[in-house]
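task queued by scheduler; priority normal; single chain, no ligands, no partner chains; default sampling; output format set to structure tokens
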Amino acid sequence: MKFYNREEEVNFLKNYCLLEPNSILFVYGPKSSGKTTVMLRVIEELSKREDIVFFYYDLRRYATPTKEEFLKIFFEKGDKKYLLNKFDFNNLSLNDVFDKIYESIETVIKDGKKPILIIDELQKLKNIYFNGNDNGKSLLNELFNLFVHLTKVRHLCHVICLTSDTLFIEEIYQNSTFYLMKLHS
């Protein structure tokens, strides 16, 4: 397939991936606008380097209505070399899940490589809760805490989130603004 008029976006994303991790990057636009195609081109071009490992998850490909599906996608569907997937899904807490993600990223770093976590159509995770909907922890809110820790606090890993849901972007922006306002008051 030919690739037209996206050189600027591809170059920006390639350069971003080569910088020290210090922020969460959102790539958004209307459905079928080329977000995934651009990201896959970046992955293809940077994968020629031996110092970068991509953890790419296209949530559009999977049904993700439950925490069990989330776990299977993140721990059974990727690069087995870096995914530590020998555990019982039924007895995992959210902290266990985040520890596994963190361990996988640290393993990449110990191998002298730069990990890049990419989640395509991230908004599909917004209705998943651990420990039930009423008292449970929102997976998405907790994931963002992990993303901030990986990027802004520890500078271990780039996190790139793709979405076509502009209402989701607005919700994320409002939540982060709320937290910023709360911290400053």
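post-processing summary
- The beta strands are 24-28, 52-58, 114-120, 129-130, 137-138, 158-163.
- The longest strand covers residues 52-58.
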